[in-house]
Design a protein that fits this description.
The complex is a heterodimer of chains A (244) and B (488). With 244 residues, chain A is an alpha/beta fold. Chain A has helices at 10-14, 30-42, 53-63, 79-89, 103-111, 124-135, 173-184, 192-200, 208-222; strands spanning 22-26, 46-50, 67-71, 94-98, 116-119, 147-150, 153-156, 161-164, 167-169, 232-235, 239-242. A five-stranded parallel sheet of chain A has the order 2-1-3-4-5, with helices on both faces. In chain A, strands 6-7-8-9 form a four-stranded antiparallel sheet, covered by helices on one side. In chain A, a hairpin with a 4-residue loop joins β7 and β8. Chain B has 488 residues and is of the alpha+beta class. The chains are: A alpha/beta (244), B alpha+beta (488).
């Protein structure tokens, strides 16, 4: 991630106009919360700190946010539940932070609606990179088609909408970008690594489960029968493709 | 570490090296032998007594009747010359002979005469007392019956041969010997069979113990049909449960400690990150201090992560996130940005797809490359090959071999096993000065590969030049599937 944003002084950052990127963090450890806020403010983002799930939901409903950062281990309602609640309210990008190393938490977090995850302890530069990758709408590439039609699916890349046989389908931003990348490939197979790089901005060593879980969620929304996919196909040993 | 307690095991010092099964069989055989010898002896003795008594009674009865008839036929004028005629009319017993004394004359039997009569009996007869006894006559057992004829100065002796009985007993003894031998053999066979049956649950115990030793800590024995074995099974399961709980507790402790360190580490990293972003505002001294912080923070972070991984292996909870990994793509991505490393891929390696945990495999490669950089001046060659599985017995499968070679001093023979141990740094590892390794890298390589069913090793370079060659071997069961995958 070589992108560089202009640095803003924190004092100015807190008084940024509404156009600045707003990040909502939920973390019960006060020192981590403060340190993470300081690190994110270095990037010029506006940070709203909350210490538990109830506060986080209240803040999100009142003020909204552009990205939400949720620690899984929370007192009261846990991170998974916060994630599910926020996901029901909108398609804002969500990053889960887990302190556990077992695979179960990661998959559960993704299933709850998270777009990406980080393990504690994380490098603040990595956190910023993840947030930037999720905020990126799509590549501003002139050669890209704005309207893709695959079977009964109609993808309007610029408008961010998908229709299946005339009916609007609601996708999260990450699901939408996944579908667009598969659509642009025009039936060619994209490996997990390709998709990790294009959608999440990861290198070859990103976690393939991000792709698998999001593909599963995408199928529940675009496939008439998610158990027997007709559009989003798995190609064993290779990756995924969109079948007309 | 305390000395292990070894409970006394009987026979472990002095008993012959016979297995329990063989010992039970031998015990059965000895038992069979003793029982058959006992029965045979008793049978022989009883039969002998019965036969002898029967013969004696017959001899005595016939002798009494003969003596009475002789007494009736004799007259005071009878002389020894008259006796054969009288004697011929007497009842004969098989194997029996008679000797008659009249006055001072003796009528001998065809094969015996009065010298053959036992002296004890002659003494009694001298006192006009009758009697009978079993004794040796001319080396053979005989019943000798003596009856004094009270009306005359005469005695009647019957001598009955018992050697016929001896013959019968000899035959019987042979039969019993054969039966005894057969019984012993049968007992041995029965013992062997019984011991196999008895030991079957023990073999299950052995299997379970081996499984636990092999890391499958949740292995338990099922209920046993026999109440004694059921107790053994219960004790075994109790032991296994305690062991598992203990191991999990130890591993959880390490894991908990590492987890607890994650929160402060997160704060530290975020805080140091802010300082790094504002590096330009710091003085020269502060910048140097910050650099030290950054470096050791990174090392600390790595150590915590590796300890967490290791506690995961130890608790048996390390999980594999298997995905399809194209070996060529994986290695190209791994070596991207590293200069001076020659990657050698066989022509068909584009098709090498393995099921592996990419994160763990990446760590294995990172650790091997890091190890080469640290102790071998940096890796110079990474080679991929597909080889028949080396193992005993050969499985007929194939494995993927990835070798990482360097131009360093190599690893001496004696240190090859030890360098894969935790916190081992080998003889070259003395240089702690600028060493920022954790000492866990190669042990993680071993554990990560083991989770995949693979293994790690170190050897000399095949081209004979100095340097080390670290190899990782992974089973290749999915090669055939890749073609199938392409066609879909």
């Amino acid at each position: 991630m070589g992108q560089h944003l202009l640095m803003t002084q924190p004092s100015q950052a807190t008084t940024q106009p509404a156009t600045a990127t707003r990040i909502l963090t939920v973390e019960d450890d006060e020192r981590i919360r403060t340190a993470v806020r300081l690190a994110l403010e270095e990037e010029g983002w506006v940070v709203a700190e909350t210490a538990n799930g109830e506060q986080a939901l209240e803040s999100f409903i009142t003020n909204g946010a552009d990205v939400v950062l949720i620690d899984i281990m929370l007192p009261g309602i846990d991170g998974f539940e916060v994630c599910r609640s926020i996901r029901r309210l909108g398609d804002v990008p969500i990053i889960m932070v887990t302190a556990r190393s077992d695979s179960h938490d990661v998959v559960a977090g993704l299933e709850a609606g998270a777009d990406d995850y980080l393990r504690k302890p994380f490098d603040p530069k990595e956190l910023s990179a993840r947030i930037r990758a999720l905020l990126r709408r799509s590549r501003s590439d002139e050669s890209r088609p704005t309207r893709i039609e695959v079977g009964g699916l109609e993808i309007l890349a610029d408008e961010g909408t998908v229709r299946h046989e005339g009916t609007d389908i609601h996708l999260t931003r990450t699901e939408f970008r996944l579908l667009v990348e598969l659509g642009i490939a025009e039936g060619r197979v994209l490996s997990r690594e390709d998709l990790l790089e294009r959608v999440w901005g990861y290198d070859y060593f990103g976690d393939g489960r991000l792709v698998d879980v999001h593909i599963r969620r995408l199928r529940t929304k675009v496939e008439p029968d998610p158990a027997n996919p007709r559009y989003v196909m798995t190609v064993r040993g290779m990756g995924y493709k969109l079948q007309p | 570490m305390p000395e292990p307690t070894t409970l006394p095991g009987r026979g472990s010092d002095h008993a012959p090296n016979l297995g329990l099964g063989a010992r039970i069989a031998v015990l059965f055989a000895v038992g069979g032998l003793l029982v058959s010898v006992g029965i045979a002896s008793a049978t022989l003795a009883l039969t002998r007594r019965q036969l002898v008594e029967a013969r004696e009674e017959t001899a005595a009865a016939v002798a009494v009747s003969n003596a009475t008839r002789l007494s009736n036929q004799l007259t005071p004028e009878s002389t020894i010359e008259d006796l054969p005629t009288v004697a011929d009319s007497l009842t004969k017993v098989e194997g029996g002979q008679r000797i008659i004394r009249l006055g001072d004359d003796w009528l001998p039997a065809p094969e015996l005469d009065n010298d053959d009569l036992p002296l004890d009996l002659l003494d009694r007869m001298g006192k006009r007392l009758g009697g009978q006894l079993v004794t040796e006559v001319r080396g053979e057992p005989h019943v000798v019956v003596g009856i004094p004829l009270s009306a005359f100065d005469a005695d009647y002796y019957a001598v009955v041969d018992l050697s016929g009985i001896t013959q019968t007993l000899d035959n019987l003894r042979l039969v019993l010997l054969g039966a005894g031998a057969a019984t012993t053999v049968l007992a041995a066979l029965l013992g062997a069979w019984a011991s196999r049956r008895t030991l079957r649950p023990l073999r299950r115990v052995r299997g379970a113990a081996e499984a636990i030793a092999g890391g499958r800590l949740d292995t338990r024995l099922g209920p046993q049909a026999d109440p004694d074995l059921d107790r053994l099974s219960d004790s075994f399961n109790e032991m296994a449960r305690a062991l598992e709980a203990r191991i999990h507790r130890d591993a959880r402790f390490a894991s908990d400690v590492s987890h607890e360190l994650r929160s402060p580490l997160t704060t530290l990293m975020a805080g140091v990150g802010v300082l790094e972003a504002r590096r330009d505002e710091l003085s020269e001294r502060s910048r140097t201090a910050l650099d030290l912080l950054v470096q050791d923070l990174e090392r600390f972070n790595r150590l915590i992560n590796e300890l967490l991984e290791i506690s995961g292996y130890d608790a048996g909870v390390a999980d594999l996130d298997l995905t399809e990994v194209n070996v060529a793509q994986f290695l190209e991505a791994t070596l991207a940005g590293m200069d001076g490393i020659l990657l050698e891929l066989p022509d068909d390696s584009r098709d090498f797809v393995i099921e592996a945990d990419k994160r763990r495999l990446a760590r294995v490669m990172a650790n091997l490359l890091d190890n080469a950089r640290r102790y071998g001046g940096g890796a110079t060659r990474v080679a991929v090959a597909r080889e028949p599985t080396t193992g005993d017995p050969p499985t007929g499968g194939e494995e993927l071999v990835i070798a990482v070679e360097d131009d360093g001093p190599g690893v001496p023979d004696g240190e090859r096993a030890a360098i894969f141990d935790r916190f081992s740094r080998g003889s070259a590892g003395g240089r702690r000065g600028s060493d920022d390794g954790t000492g866990l890298g190669l042990s993680l390589v071993v554990e990560d590969l083991r989770l995949h069913g693979g293994r790690a090793g170190v050897e000399d370079r095949p081209d004979g030049r100095p340097g080390a060659r670290f190899t990782l071997r992974l089973p290749l069961p999915y090669l055939d599937d890749t073609m199938e995958g392409r066609e879909q």
